[in-house]
Amino acid sequence: MDLVIEELTPAAFAPYGDVLQIEGSRFFHINDGKTERYHDLARIEVSDGNRVL
Length: 53
What we know:
It is a single chain. A two-stranded antiparallel ribbon has the order 1-2. The protein is flat. The protein has one helix at 10-13; strands at residues 27-30, 35-38. By secondary structure, it is mainly β.
């Protein structure tokens, strides 16, 4: 079996969910400026099995 590597794009991944992207997102530096921390990149839905909370 051959494994085909393809570019991850929002359109190609759409049947499975969303692709998180950082372009244009706000961030701040942490770890002495060595890391960028991003907020609110995804909308999280939580379910109790019967309804979305």
